[in-house]
Amino acid sequence: MWLERIDRKIAAVRQRQAEEERGRQRRPAPPEWVAALGIGAGREPAEVHAGSCRMTGPRWRAAGRDEARRLLSSCVRACGHCQPDVQLHILDLAATAAA
To answer: Could you tell me the residue ranges of all domains in the chain?
Structure first.
């Protein structure tokens, strides 16, 4: 009786581990770039982040490389943690912001 309970528990744990592994394999890759959206009806992009940045917040949408560059060049703020402006080689933003 105890052996049967132990075998069922082992089978259940193995099944759960297999399901978790399948979930990890099927999870979509994070986007390359993220536009964090502001609050309000229009929800315009307020900040640009790298896709792996954990500072994005709850409101965001995926952005392509060209869109991220366009947003940064149109004075949308770059994240201070992941520094997408540096990663995208947009070096003149700091000079224009200081002026």
So the answer is: 33-98
0.85 surpassed by pTM: no
65-95 confidence digits (pLDDT tens): 999 999 999 989 999 999 999 988 886 654 4
Q: Are strands 60-63 and 33-37 parallel, antiparallel or unpaired?
A: antiparallel
- Dihedrals phi, psi of 64, to nearest 5 degrees: -80, 170
Q: How far is CA 14 from CA 7, 17, 20, 37, in A?
A: 11, 5, 10, 41
Comparing CA positions, the residue from 87, 94, 80, 31 lying closest to residue 60 is 31
DSSP single-letter state for residue 53: -
